[in-house]
Amino acid sequence: MDFTLTPEQQLLRDGLTKFLGARYDLNTSREAAKVGAGWQPEIWRAFAEDLGVIGACLPESVGGADGGPEELMVVTEALGYALVVEPFVDSVVLGARLLERTKHERALAVAEKIAEGAALSALATVEDGSGGLLNHVGTRAERDGNGWILNGTKAVVTTAPIADHLLISARTSGDVRDRDGVSLFLVDLGDAGPDGLTMHAVRTIDDRRAADLEFTDLRLDADALIGPEGDALPLLEQAWDEATAAVVSEAVGAMRKVFTDTVEYAKQRQQFGQAIGSFQALQHRMVDMYIELEQAVAAQYFAVLTLDAAPTERAAAVSAAKATVSRAARFIGQNAVQLHGGMGMTEELAIGHFFRRLTAIEYEFGSADAHLARYAATTRG
Questions:
Q1: pLDDT for residue 1 is more than 70
Q2: Degrees (nearest 5) of the Cα angle 87, 229, 373?
Q3: What is the CATH code of the structural domain delimited by 122-230?
Q4: Which end of the chain lies in a sparser environment, N or C, as judged by fewer CB atoms within 10 Å?
Q5: What is the pTM of this model?
Q6: What is the reported pLDDT for 273?
Q7: 313, exposed or middle or buried, with CB in 10 Å at 0-12, 13-18, 19+?
Q8: Angle made by CA atoms 101, 103, 108, in degrees to the nearest 5
Q9: How confident is the model over 212-231, as pLDDT tens digits?
Q10: DSSP strand pairing (165-171 vs 121-124)
Q11: Domain 234-379, second-level architecture
Q12: Is CATH 1.10.540.10 correct for 7-119?
């Protein structure tokens, strides 16, 4: 495997890093997340129009630059380092990239809007009691003349409260855990949302907007069905693995920042007349953090550079990476807070915000235990 970035990828990384360093203020972003719109639309437009960051990870067919897994890694790691709250993974990876693969006319039009920075999307697929299994779909879609009627629920759909479009997995045939019979529907939310959709919005521990969704006789047109009827699961699994790899890269970026800030703090914080970084016990602790970070980086590359492989190989690599990063996120985050002392959990210090995001990432797209089980299942001879 070649781990060297191309000149174009280096420019993408450097341009985004410089932009975020100059224009992405942590306090402003947290204020927008807590009491504002939940995100900064002007930043999102700049991602699309000024930097081309959104299009860099999308195919040319929807107005992108035809970037692949490496570009996705570069972008998401930089977003993690700056603790960006804007929904890149939800709208680009689980949104535009998934929409483009359906080759459906309406889906392609929405993907183009996302590439332009003019729309956000959210994927509603996880349900209570599913254990994160994408084939565990109890939401039902039944034909109604030329259209469809949806009934069911989805749990903790991130970005849903601020999204313009929903992608919903629903069962058009089969039983709850069957692999066949899962279909994908595209719903335009508009200003108030369609009749039959109830959204219970929440703010997550890491300052993101999410919602539990209820569908009660939600009526959809025939063209709301995108992709093959009853055979959407492979598309969903591919998008889910890509999103998991993207979050792994985001975590690496966040852990780099946390580790760097912790080392700098240890050099400055005085105790017993000397910097706490001079204490051997704390030096050992920071070395352990560094080792965890480097293992996470290796897992990140393994996952990203295997995204184009066969489904079983891809799943094994992604699950190995997610299990590794979930462990590293917990270790680095918790030790960073300990080394900072009580102030590490305050709102005023950046480390507390990074810790909450790393804690969420530990379980996002599946816990370490879930991915270890998946890895074992995919590699069993």
A1: no
A2: 60
A3: 2.40.110.10
A4: C
A5: 0.95
A6: 87
A7: middle
A8: 90
A9: 999 999 999 999 999 899 99
A10: parallel
A11: Up-down Bundle (1.20)
A12: yes
